[in-house]
Design brief:
alpha+beta; eight-stranded antiparallel β-sheet; 19 helices; 11% strand; elongated; transmembrane; transmembrane helix; Peptidase M56 domain-containing protein; Peptidase_M56; membrane
Length: 595
């Protein structure tokens, strides 16, 4: 899984590096005769940096934004078709019977699964290729060092004096040996820590001392400019990007420009025009003597394949125009910056932005209580008291009315008690309802506050910053892991803990789902009353999903059974906190999930 993530990053860098390489080649072609040899060489620094530094910066000025595929607008109906949520009920979690992909009505795509399998296989093939090439380079260099130990050092005093004179002129203090070696036909330099100049024995009697001075000057400039370090770095980069022929071609161009830049360094130290011509004549002699193409890995020297261009550069040598140099550098930097930056992406669409204010959590004030019914009760009791007094006075006047008065008093008393009982029950119900509403509001407030941190209420693991291995260390192995194409990742089910985590190919968690039993206290109407109008509201055959924006990074999806006549205000089944950026796939130009 980690290997696949690394390979994915390499593919992305390869694509951006290819764009940059094309841009550099174009700039070099346009200003070919206007730029100095060194500038032709140093301009490749941007490409090497792009290929070795996985810079993760996003921008809308990136050239990568133009490499897109036609996409539909993410309206609710389209989202409903593309993403069918992976619903798992509390009952199935409690029993541990987690339904399969088919049981969850998730639209599986065999083609996508096949691509994922091939992608993992490609990652394995890639690392095998890289390992093989690096192993080959290592073996060749070790073998070369072993062979050179058996070679004899040059003991000709005239050549050693020329070498020391050139070292002094170029201000090089390191100890450098001249080794007789037939492993490299043309003169070359080998070794970074203890560099050696390699010369074949058959060359000794074919060059004049002045030509040897030019040869030594060339090789010493390679050492002084640390070109061997660059050459070894290029070999490692070529091994990593062995599958990209454009990168290989570009890196070979770097080596060619390195030789030409080294020639330019030598020419800059030659004071007379006659010496420049002699240096060119020396190269012609080298081409005549060693027309056979043969090079040794890890060495630098007279690359015969490119001698024609080098001779032309020498005969037409002149300093580059400052204006052309600035213009070429500006164009290269523009191309470099735009291809070094990853394409920008936005979590929140324009429609979502307009709904953000209404979707942001705002806990409403407690509604005012209904007018107290105790006043009504007291009024009824007072009226009953007055009625009793009046009837009592009348009963004193008539004996026959006494019985009626008593009966009337009993009836009035019972009525008052009934009204008092109803009023008390009503007050108790109002208090219970108010208490329940407060509990729901507190729970919803907790859900929103934790969502802003990327967490759900029954988990300590935030999305975005947590990898699935961290969860497994704490909770143990998941009950099952399924790839869900429409949800853009793998989903690990932890039944005992009532949580499900969605993670991408880099093991990074982008979604956390909670199936906590407390969620059954939250009704659809209460959620909308507390959170406001949803930014996202989609109804399917059996469920309704509403969504809110927690902040610029995280979103909340709340899942309810679909409303019906028998269930007009359903309670929540589960909810999830989503990190949309975690589902983006730049390699396939997939913007990822928005909800």
């Amino acid at each position: 899984m980690v290997l696949s993530a690394v390979f994915k990053e390499v593919l992305l860098l390869s694509l951006m590096g290819s764009i940059l390489a094309v841009g550099i080649l174009a700039v070099k072609a346009i200003f070919r005769q206007k730029l100095s040899a060194k500038l032709h060489y140093y301009i490749w620094i941007l490409l090497v940096l792009r290929l070795i530094l996985p810079i993760d910066i996003q921008s809308h000025i990136s050239f990568m934004n133009f490499i897109t595929i036609e996409q539909k607008e993410l309206d609710p109906h389209f989202i409903a078709e593309q993403y069918v949520p992976n619903i798992i009920t509390n009952s199935t979690i409690a029993t541990g019977n987690i339904p399969s992909i088919e049981d969850r009505n998730v639209l599986s795509d065999p083609g996508i699964i096949g691509v994922i399998f091939n992608y993992d296989t490609a990652a394995v093939l890639w690392i095998i290729g890289v390992s093989s090439i690096l192993l080959y380079i290592l073996c060749v260099n070790i073998l070369m060092m072993a062979k050179l130990k058996k070679c004899s050092a040059c003991d000709r005093e005239d050549l050693l004096e020329i070498l020391e004179a050139e070292k002094t002129r170029l201000k090089i203090n390191s100890k450098i040996k001249i080794i007789y070696s037939n492993y490299s036909k043309s003169p070359a330099v080998f070794g970074i820590i203890r560099p050696k100049i390699l010369i074949s024995e058959e060359l000794i009697d074919k060059l004049t001392l002045e030509e040897f001075r030019f040869v030594f000057s060339h090789e010493l400039n390679h050492i002084k400019n640390k070109d061997l370090v660059v050459n070894n770095l290029l070999m490692i980069v070529k091994a990593i990007y062995w599958f990209n022929p454009l990168i290989w071609y570009s890196l070979n161009q770097v080596k060619q420009d390195c030789e030409v830049a080294c020639d330019a360094s030598v020419i800059n130290t030659l004071k007379k025009e006659e010496e420049v011509k002699k240096y060119g004549q020396t190269m012609i002699n080298m081409l005549r003597l060693f027309s056979e193409k043969r090079s040794t890995t890890g060495t630098l020297g007279y690359a015969n394949k490119y001698n024609k261009r080098r001779i032309v550069m020498i005969t037409q040598f002149k300093k580059s125009s400052a204006i052309c140099a600035v213009l070429a550098l500006s164009l290269t930097i523009m191309v470099g910056c735009s291809s070094t930056i990853k394409p920008g992406s936005s979590d929140v669409s324009p429609n979502e932005t307009s709904d953000t204010n209404s979707s942001t959590l705002s806990v409403e004030k407690k509604s005012q209580d209904e007018p107290s019914q105790s006043n009504t009760t007291q009024g009824n009791i007072s009226q009953a008291s007055q009625s009793n007094t009046t009837q009592g006075n009348i009963s004193q006047a008539s004996q026959s009315n006494t019985t009626q008065d008593k009966t009337s008093n009993v009836s009035q008393s019972n009525t008052t008690q009934d009204k008092t009982s109803k009023a008390t029950a009503s007050n108790n119900n109002t208090a219970a309802s108010s208490s329940n509403g407060d509990t729901q509001r507190k729970l919803l407030s907790s859900i929103m506050q934790l969502a802003k941190q990327g967490k759900i209420i029954n988990s300590e693991f935030p999305v975005k910053t947590t990898v699935i291995e961290d969860v497994e260390k704490k909770l143990g192995n998941p009950d099952k892991v399924d790839w869900v194409p429409n949800a853009k990742g793998n989903y690990a089910v932890f039944s005992k803990d009532n949580v499900v985590f969605g993670f991408n190919k880099g093991s990074r968690i982008f979604e956390a789902r909670s199936f906590d039993k407390k969620l059954n206290e939250l009704s659809l109407s209460m959620v909308k009353k507390v959170f406001g109008t949803p930014a996202y509201d989609v109804k399917s055959k059996d469920e309704e999903i509403i969504g809110y924006v927690a902040n610029s990074e995280y979103k909340i999806l709340l899942v309810f059974p679909k409303t019906s006549n028998s269930n007009p205000d359903p309670v929540m089944d589960h909810y999830s906190v989503l990190y949309p950026k975690g589902t983006v796939n730049n390699m396939s130009n997939d913007p990822g999930r928005q909800w």
